[in-house]
């Protein structure tokens, strides 16, 4: 008889947790993007780059847009999150970070079941994604 575990076809509790968090997090991120976009276009918050300059700057290369619009590189946008045009980045970051957030509860769940290798892999995944998002390794995108 084999020691291979039998598959029941049912998702494990960890898979269900991950899927639920991803589902609600993605819908929450999309809703947040909609709300912050409405805040931007209605002018509730003043944009960093004035709306009348957008058509002119968007027709330029990105370097010109960044310089003329005084737009920061990388994570510099965080300092401008109170501006209407940068507020919507919060929803984008939530969507982009959902994988990281979904892996966090897996670590204690795996440790509770004694699956240290899976817990270590989940932690490693979180660390790799955080380093990649930080821009520390500088893959040339910034």
Please characterize this protein's 3D structure.
The protein is mostly helical and 142 residues long. Helices cover 61% and strands 0% of the residues. The radius of gyration is 21 Å and the shape is elongated. The N and C termini lie far apart (55 Å).
What's the story with the biggest beta sheet?
none
* Order of secondary-structure elements: HHHHHHH
Given helix and strand content, the structural type is mainly alpha
**Number of DSSP E strands:** 0
Radius of gyration: 21 Å
Low-confidence stretches: none
Query: What is the helix content?
Result: 55-70%
Total number of distinct structural domains: 2
Fraction in beta strands: under 5%
The backbone outline, from C-alpha atoms, is elongated
What is the CA-CA span between the terminal residues? 55 Å
Q: What's the mean pLDDT score? A: 89
In DSSP terms (H or I, runs of 4 or more residues), the helix count works out at 7
Q: Outline of this structure?
A:
With 142 residues, the chain is mainly alpha-helical.
Write the layout of secondary structure elements.
Layout: H1 13-42, H2 54-58, H3 62-68, H4 84-87, H5 89-103, H6 106-112, H7 116-134
Please supply descriptive tags for the structure shown above.
2 domains, single chain, 142 residues, 7 helices, mainly alpha
């Amino acid at each position: 008889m084999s020691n291979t575990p039998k598959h029941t076809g049912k998702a494990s509790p960890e898979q269900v947790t991950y899927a639920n968090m991803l589902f609600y997090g993605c819908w929450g991120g999309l809703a947040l993007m909609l709300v912050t976009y409405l805040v931007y276009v209605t002018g509730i918050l003043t944009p960093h780059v004035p709306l009348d300059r957008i058509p002119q700057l968007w027709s330029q290369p990105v370097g010109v847009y960044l310089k003329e619009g005084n737009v920061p590189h990388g994570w510099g946008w965080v300092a401008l999150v109170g501006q209407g045009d940068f507020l919507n980045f919060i929803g984008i970051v939530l969507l982009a970070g959902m994988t990281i957030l979904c892996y966090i509860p897996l670590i204690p769940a795996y440790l509770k079941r004694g699956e240290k290798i899976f817990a270590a892999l989940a932690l490693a995944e979180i660390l790799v994604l955080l380093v990649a998002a930080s821009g520390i390794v500088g893959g040339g995108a910034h």
